[in-house]
Amino acid sequence: MSDNEHRELVGEMFELLRKRHEFKTIEGTICCGSCAVAKLNSMGVSGQPCAYYHEQDAEIYETDKDLRLYIGYGWIESDRPSEEVGYMVAAAAVEVGLKVDWNGEGTSKIIVGLREE
Ligand SMILES: [Zn+2]
């Protein structure tokens, strides 16, 4: 799988999350985690799921030969457990054909990468 194909799958994953679960998403267009969370909070409403990667994650991704991308996620202004959102992200990643590396904990980012052939 090439870099471009992998990038397309990541895009499909975000698309699926927006369509199926009304996610608010940010794909690499904001500098860091705290700015991404602030922006997502301003874009969505309470109880809406969100997922993102920021510019620093995108830079790590660009230089990682294994093409691993860290995905942040959670609820907008909600006390519900964030792993609920994590499972939606992980399921969407698998559905589009990405490999998922995640410990199932809401405090850990989900790493989406290449599936071994
Ligand atoms: Zn920032």
Could you characterize the architecture of this molecule?
This protein has a 5-stranded mixed β-sheet with strand order 1-2-3-5-4, with helices on both faces. The longest helix has 19 residues, at 3-21. The protein has 4 helices and 5 strands. The mean pLDDT is 92. It has helices spanning 3-21, 33-43, 55-63, 83-96, and strands at 24-27, 49-53, 69-75, 99-101, 110-113. It starts with a helix and ends with a strand. Helix 1 (3-21) crosses helix 4 (83-96). With 117 residues, the protein is α+β, with helices and mostly antiparallel strands. The protein is globular. Zinc ion is lined by residues 31-32, 34-35.
Give a quick summary of the entry.
This protein has 117 residues and is α+β, with helices and mostly antiparallel strands.
Distance between the first and last residues' Cα:
9 Å
Let me know the average pLDDT.
92
- Placed side by side, the strands forming the largest sheet appear as 1-2-3-5-4
Low-confidence stretches: none
Q: Can you tell me the overall shape?
A: globular
* Tally of contiguous helical segments: 4
User: What would you report as the Rg, rounded to the nearest angstrom?
Assistant: 13 Å
Provide the succession of SSEs.
Answer: HEHEHEHEE
Supply the helix-strand structural class: alpha+beta
Give the names of the bound compounds.
Answer: zinc ion
Q: How many E-type strands?
A: 5
